[in-house]
């Protein structure tokens, strides 16, 4: 079963909200209800999946799950900005955010420098460096340790060792990101070990780890 097929099966368990449910949920979101925020996100994953389909179809050379994840991030961004009192449907409001993030990602991906096939491993590193650079921390910003502590210590989790946490890892992260996080926190591997296991540099492990932790934090897994 492909990664996309598995993901579609996971998303199928979250029905779209009715107009009345949407109104009530977003009122709770506006009041600072974290559970309502998570519900607003998860119950709109189908919307993100549907919206991303045409971009996946038009860009077959690109990883489908990466495009879908950009749509998911667009949903998260829209949930945090949506004002239900204005009478706009959330699906209409969210489309602009999803389109912006997907098209930005596609533009970045297509402008990456390509190298000959015999330098495939070098190409992989270059792709990783360019993609994760979008989320790399600036000087003085959160380190992976700080992010990790916040994600593990959020209201919903006492530590990384909870079934709910790992279910969210599989849902919100790409296959590669989820594998890296599992090796780091479930198997307690050092970055150098993870790099050898996954065939990437220690620097790329660090950057991808930070990107993955930021994703988890952004979907409400941390305070």
General description of the model:
- The two termini are 34 Å apart.
- The protein has helices spanning 3-11, 19-30, 34-42, 45-58, 64-81, 90-110, 120-133, 144-152, 163-172, 175-186, 191-198, 202-221.
- Helix 9 packs across helix 12 (202-221) and helix 11 packs across helix 12 (202-221).
- The chain has two domains: 3-110, Up-down Bundle (Four Helix Bundle (Hemerythrin (Met), subunit A)), CATH 1.20.120.1810; 118-221, no CATH class.
- The protein is globular.
- The longest helix has 21 residues, at 90-110.
- The chain is mostly helical and 223 residues long.
Provide tags for this entry.
223 residues, mainly alpha, Four Helix Bundle (Hemerythrin (Met), subunit A), 70% helix
Please outline what is shown here:
It is globular and about 50 Å long. Mean pLDDT is 77; it is low at 113-141 and 152-159.
CATH class of the largest domain: Mainly Alpha
Helix content: 55-70%
Instruction: Provide the β-strand percentage band.
Output: under 5%
Q: Please count the beta strands (DSSP E, at least 2 residues each).
A: 0
- Architecture per CATH nomenclature, i.e. the level-2 architecture of the largest domain: Up-down Bundle
Major beta sheet, specifics?
none
According to CATH, what is the topology of the largest domain?
Four Helix Bundle (Hemerythrin (Met), subunit A)
As for the number of domains, it is 2
Amino-to-carboxy terminus distance: 34 Å
> How many separate helices?
12
What is the chain-wise order of helices and strands?
HHHHHHHHHHHH
* Helix/sheet category: mainly alpha
């Amino acid at each position: 079963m492909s990664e996309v097929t598995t993901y579609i099966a996971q998303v199928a368990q979250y029905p779209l909200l009715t107009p009345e449910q949407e109104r009530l949920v977003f009122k709770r979101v506006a009041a600072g209800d974290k559970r309502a925020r998570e519900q607003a996100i998860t119950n709109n994953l189908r919307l993100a999946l549907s919206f991303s389909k045409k971009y996946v179809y038009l860009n077959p050379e690109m990883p489908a799950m990466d495009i879908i994840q950009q749509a998911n991030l667009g949903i998260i961004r829209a949930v945090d900005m949506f004002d239900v009192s204005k009478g706009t449907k959330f699906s209409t409001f969210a489309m602009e955010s999803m389109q912006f993030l997907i098209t930005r990602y596609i533009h970045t991906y297509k402008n990456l420098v390509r190298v000959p096939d015999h330098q495939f491993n070098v190409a992989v590193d270059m792709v990783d460096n360019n993609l994760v650079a979008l989320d790399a921390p600036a000087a003085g910003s959160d380190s992976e340790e700080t992010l990790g502590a916040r994600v593990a210590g959020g209201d919903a989790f006492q530590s990384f060792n909870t079934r709910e946490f790992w279910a969210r890892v599989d849902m919100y992260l790409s296959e590669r990101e989820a594998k890296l996080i599992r090796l780091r926190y479930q198997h307690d591997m050092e970055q150098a070990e993870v790099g050898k296991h996954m065939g990437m540099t220690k620097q790329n492990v660090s950057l991808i780890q930070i990107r993955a932790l930021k994703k988890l934090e952004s979907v409400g897994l941390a305070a």
